[in-house]
Specification:
Elements lengths: L5 H24 L4 E2 L7 E4 L4 E4 H6 L6 E7 L4 H16 L3 E7 L4 H6 L7 E5 L5 E6 L4 H15 L2
Parallel strand pairs: 4-5
Antiparallel strand pairs: 1-7, 2-3, 4-6, 6-7
Helix pairs in contact: 3-5
């Protein structure tokens, strides 16, 4: 009978350590709202508000002057249903927040333009039509409320 290889044991330990580190990192990052650097995108006038919005957001139904939560989802995405419940709770808790749900299968070109790589992804759009924050994964209700409240205060001035 042969002795177990030390090299094989080391490989197994390293793979388990890397998988655990990746799982921790993913769990820590998933659903967290992050500020967004402004990307150069095509803009289009919003006649209803007299402002200029990114064309991709206008095509999705986002209006200037409102705080909007845009959810990108797909039909086979289980976390998308949980995200929709969270967004509905935020809309019920905070007056003035609008929701737009976008199917990436129907709007793949716009998803690419907005740099959407996984579902669910939530964009927090300020009243000026800029994407203020984004989250990939299911965001926490409290984090969303904290993100939209100052934007709503700016919209009411």
């Amino acid at each position: 009978m042969q002795e177990p290889s030390v090299t094989g044991l080391v490989v197994v330990v390293v793979v388990l350590a890397l998988a655990s580190a990746f799982g921790w990192w993913r769990r820590h990052r998933d659903g967290r709202l992050r500020p967004v650097a402004t990307l150069p995108v095509a803009t289009r006038p919003d006649e209803s508000a007299g402002a200029t919005l990114p064309a991709a957001l206008t095509d999705l139904g986002v209006r200037a002057g409102t705080v909007t939560l845009v959810q990108f989802s797909s039909p086979v995405c289980a976390p998308c249903r949980a995200t929709r419940r969270v967004l509905d709770e935020v809309r019920a808790a905070v007056d003035g927040v609008h929701l737009v749900e976008v199917g990436v299968d129907e709007h793949l070109d716009l998803a690419r333009e907005l740099d959407i790589w996984r579902t669910p992804t939530v964009l927090v759009v300020d009243p000026a039509g800029r994407i203020a924050q984004r989250a990939a994964g299911v965001p926490a209700k409290d984090d969303l409320v904290a993100a939209v409240t100052p934007l709503l205060a700016g919209a009411r001035r």
